[in-house]
Amino acid sequence: MKKKHIAEIIIILAAAGFVFFTGWTQFKVSGGTCGILISKTSGVNSEPVLPGRFSWHWEYLLPTNAELRLFKLKPYTAEREVQGTLPSADIYSTVYETPPDFSYSVNFSISAKIDPADIAELVKDSVITDSDSLTAYLDAAYSTLANKAAAYILGRKESAASFHPESLQPGDILAGIDASRDYPYIMFTDFSIMSSKLPDFILYNNARSSYIENQKRLQERAAERKKKVNELLQQFPELQDIFSGK
Fold first, then answer.
1. If exposure means fewest CB atoms within 10 Å of the residue's CB, which of 88, 100, 175, 181 is most exposed?
2. CA-to-CA distance for 68 and 60, rounded, in angstroms?
3. What is the rounded CA–CA span in Å between residue 155 and residue 160?
């Protein structure tokens, strides 16, 4: 009877151990990563699985019901170059004998990460699905914000000729482009300018003004010529065929 009781205890302990280790998810996550539990019965779990923090999920007790997707937590760093030419620069520059260079380029170094709880939210919203799509999401955000930052820098340069982009701190750029509004889940650890080449806005604005003024004068002259021709035709209708090209 005693042996039977001991056997029952062993069976119970074995079953308990099986249940515990089947649902224990903490050991599946290594340092520098977090896990997001996705199951057929419960969907996306809002509580991320982190190394060093105990976690157990009953969803694993059902075969093929649950999976743990791993995401890197280390900040992702990438560079972005934004280059281009000011609007209609090729046209406006013709007012100068030697056309100035109105092109620009700005090189950024960007680094950011996403909090584990926010990773879970992005998975819930189907924005990301795995670690590769998380990187792709950050890549897309970097490109979008780099373009906005370049536009912001060009605006600052146009407002103040003495402005030097390299004087901006990462926080200045992020605040200037309101990055947190577009990407509230992304925590930026760096958004710095590695190098920049900006056009001379004084020359550009002068060229634009001169070009527009020249076009205005040409239009006025054309209108005046048309007016004189019309007046002439009113006096001498027989000239109509000459001006019409017949």
1. 181
2. 10
3. 9
What whole-number distance in Å separates Cα of residue 52 and Cα of residue 116?
14
CA distances from 22 to 17, 25, 58 (A): 8, 8, 8
- 8 A C-beta contact, residue 95 and residue 214: yes
pTM of the predicted protein model:
0.80
Quick: pLDDT tens for 169-193. 999 999 999 999 999 999 999 999 9
Query: Structure tokens of 36?
Result: 């997001």
Torsions phi, psi of 66, nearest 5?
Answer: -130, 155
What does the alpha-carbon distance between residue 66 and residue 23 come to, in Å, rounded to a whole number? Answer: 10
What would the two tokens of residue 175 be?
Answer: 């605040």
Asked whether the beta carbons of 161 and 170 are under 8 A apart, the reply is: no
| Rounded-to-integer distance, Cα 103 and Cα 36, Å | 46
Q: Determine what percent of the chain falls in helix, strand and coil, rounding each to the nearest 5.
A: 55, 20, 25
pLDDT in tens, 41-96: 888 888 888 887 777 776 767 778 888 889 999 999 999 999 999 999 988 888 88
Q: What is the torsion angle, in degrees rounded to the nearest 10, for the CA atoms of residue 112, residue 103, residue 160 and residue 204?
A: -160
Q: Provide DSSP, 117-150.
A: HHHHHHHHTTS--SHHHHHHHHHHHHHHHHHHHH
CA distance 139 to 76: 9
